[in-house]
Design goal:
By secondary structure, the protein is mostly helical. Helices cover about 80% and strands about 0% of the residues. It is built from four helices and no strands. Helix 1 runs antiparallel to helix 3, helix 1 runs parallel beside helix 4 and helix 3 packs antiparallel against helix 4.
């Protein structure tokens, strides 16, 4: 398997993770400044989670460029990494549900 295929798959999974995170954001109920302020904890959690996923993607990108070849062990390690990123996204969604 070529490294570029694994990199493209990983980029797709991480893009889906970020998309699912943004779909969880709720639009404030009203147009007042107080309504927007009430959404700040959720927006802050999204921003922090986005930064984490972005850092994971950046490090993953640089790590993959150091590989000379891809074998089964590397593919399984990559899937484990993507699973861990997905769990991070789940914890973000769960914490957002606490804010309504």
């Amino acid at each position: 398997m070529e490294r570029s295929r694994m990199e493209a798959f990983s980029d797709g999974v991480l893009a889906i993770i970020i998309t699912i995170m943004v779909l969880n954001l709720k639009v404030p109920a009203g147009n007042s400044f107080a309504d927007i302020l009430s959404a700040l904890p959720q927006i802050g959690m999204y921003a922090i989670s986005f930064a984490y996923v972005g850092a994971y993607w950046n490090n993953h990108h640089h790590t993959l460029h150091t590989l000379r070849f891809v074998n089964g062990w590397i593919m399984w390690a990559n899937l484990l990494f993507l699973f861990a990123c997905q769990r991070w996204q789940w914890s973000y969604i769960h914490s957002c549900s606490c804010y309504g």
